[in-house]
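Duplicate of #3305? Posting structure anyway:
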């Protein structure tokens, strides 16, 4: 028996448990220090598999059919979303989305330019006419030769190369991915007085990140198979300009088997082997997770229950810790397309050099890496389709963490950031709401807002994390020729502290509006323009780092 897609279980699948308490230290947390052997909060990478049959459905139908019992997967190391520091900054790439009715071409090239001496070059090539085999490759370069502060001293450049091969057999599908990323930027959050000094050296503010990754995956291709599975493994190597490096090997397994028409056995397992080197520091850090669960489903309700067992080791910190977290999730559908859900979960979330740089790229050298324990997370809410093209989701979550992480300016170099961890008990209340509207394939709009209340034990504030974060995303297609996307980001309540002066700064609220337009001049040629930070607000996402004001990018694309 095969699990329906609506019964989607992801590696994000909710879990929970309780953790042993730690003794509160009497000394304050110092820069780059964890005050006990407990572990930290994370923002980790996502490993995408091709969609295949596994498509996540946020609002599952209450009706069940034998043909729809296919399990769906999302491959990602679970991401802690508390006060996510990321925001879409600077220049955004123009949209590559096209109306569904537009003739599809396998290949395209794109060129563009804009203010701040910006340049965009992008290309894609696919070979799909081979028997059971598909090959594709892409390259993209986006750069600004000058930035918001001191011209070229705040320049930035991002280059990406991808090569993918897919092989489809009767019973399975194999995919291999090879990628390279190169990100260059500068630590430009210095004062004008410092830049005027004779000792100021622009070579010391430059940073460069090189990332190479290889991934290989195999998954079931027969929807009628009683056992569904997907196995993915990959290795990623990161290095920077100052000889810091990290090698991360991750393997993810998801499998399911239908026991009866209503009961399914599921298992998710992860293995991560990581080594970070930075000067005299060498960290060997591993994490292993196995998550067996059972799911019962009926037209009225769905219950998922199981256990999440996690082991983490850190040779440098002397950590070898194994914990078990119960998983309980209940979803009730009292009326068609309306769901009420509640549950409790817990986990140990990885924190790597690469995941922290994805949050804040201005990190200093030799930052401390530890993992977080989410002791438990009690949540509840409702989601559904209310008709007329409208859908909604509302959720409340109250979670307890050990070693909650935050980003603050370092000392004595305030242009760089370090990670502070709350080694005590941090309680976080999160209230989330989302309202979406869709009008067939012409117009889509989604408004999402999150409110965070941080109750910390040993940290003074949740440095660098917002209290309110909201996004409003829209897309519109006109006459199969004009495609428009518009986004608005709002962040409020971000605080950072200058540890030299002792002054706490509450950053100004962030309003970042962007609009992207694609106009199809013919079957193969289109023009695009992207306007970003329309309010021209040189806001600071992190203290002393202004973003670009109003910036634009325009160009032309040719498909073949």
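Output from current build:
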């Amino acid at each position: 028996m095969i699990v329906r897609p609506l019964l989607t279980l992801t590696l994000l699948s909710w879990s929970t448990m309780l953790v042993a308490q730690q003794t509160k230290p009497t000394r304050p947390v110092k820069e780059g220090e964890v005050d006990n052997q407990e572990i930290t909060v994370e923002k980790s990478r996502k490993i995408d598999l091709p969609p295949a049959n596994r498509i996540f459905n946020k609002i599952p139908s209450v009706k069940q059919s034998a043909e729809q019992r296919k399990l769906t997967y999302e491959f990602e190391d679970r991401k802690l979303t508390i006060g996510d520091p990321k925001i879409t900054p600077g220049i955004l790439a123009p949209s590559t989305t096209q109306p569904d009715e537009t003739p599809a071409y396998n290949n395209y090239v794109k060129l563009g330019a804009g203010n701040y001496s910006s340049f965009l070059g992008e290309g894609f090539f696919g070979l799909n006419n081979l028997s059971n085999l598909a090959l594709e490759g892409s390259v993209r370069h986006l750069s600004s030769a000058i930035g918001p502060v001191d011209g070229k001293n705040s320049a930035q450049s991002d280059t990406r190369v991808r090569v993918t091969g897919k092989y489809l057999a009767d019973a399975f599908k194999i995919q291999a991915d090879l990628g390279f990323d190169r990100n260059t930027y500068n630590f430009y959050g210095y004062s004008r007085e410092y830049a005027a000094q004779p000792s100021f050296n622009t070579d010391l503010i430059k940073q460069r990140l090189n990332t190479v990754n290889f991934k290989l995956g195999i998954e079931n291709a027969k929807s009628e198979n009683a056992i569904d599975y997907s196995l993915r493994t990959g290795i990623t190597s990161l290095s920077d300009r100052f000889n810091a490096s990290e090698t991360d090997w991750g393997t993810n397994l998801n499998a399911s088997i239908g026991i009866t028409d209503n009961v399914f056995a599921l298992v998710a397992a992860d293995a991560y082997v990581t080594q970070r080197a930075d000067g005299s520091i060498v960290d060997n850090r591993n994490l292993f997770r196995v998550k067996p669960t059972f799911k019962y489903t009926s037209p009225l309700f769905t219950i998922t229950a199981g256990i999440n067992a996690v082991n983490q080791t850190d040779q440098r910190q002397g950590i070898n810790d194994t914990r078990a977290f119960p998983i309980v999730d209940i979803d009730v559908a009292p009326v068609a397309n309306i769901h009420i859900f509640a549950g409790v979960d817990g986990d140990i979330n990885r924190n790597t050099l690469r995941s922290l740089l994805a949050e804040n790229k201005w990190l200093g050298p030799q930052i401390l890496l530890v993992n977080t324990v989410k002791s438990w997370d009690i949540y509840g809410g409702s989601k559904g389709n209310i008709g007329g093209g409208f859908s909604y989701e509302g959720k409340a979550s109250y979670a307890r963490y050990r070693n909650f992480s935050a980003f603050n300016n370092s000392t004595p170099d305030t242009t760089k950031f370090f990670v502070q961890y709350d080694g005590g008990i941090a309680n976080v209340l999160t209230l989330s709401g989302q309202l979406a509207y869709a009008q067939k394939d012409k117009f889509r709009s989604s408004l999402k807002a999150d409110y965070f209340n941080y109750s910390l034990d040993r940290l003074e504030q949740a440095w660098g994390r917002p209290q309110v974060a909201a996004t409003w995303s829209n897309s519109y297609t006109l006459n199969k020729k004009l495609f428009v996307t518009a986004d608005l980001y709002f962040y409020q309540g971000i605080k950072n502290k200058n540890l030299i002066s002792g002054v706490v700064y509450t950053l100004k609220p962030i309003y970042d509006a962007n609009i992207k337009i694609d106009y199809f001049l013919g079957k193969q040629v289109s023009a695009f323009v992207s306007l970003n930070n329309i309010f021209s607000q040189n806001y600071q996402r992190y203290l002393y780092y202004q973003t670009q004001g109003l910036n634009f990018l325009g160009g032309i694309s040719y498909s073949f």
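Confirmed duplicate; merging threads. The CA atoms of residues 317 and 351 lie 14 Å apart. The longest helix spans residues 353-359.
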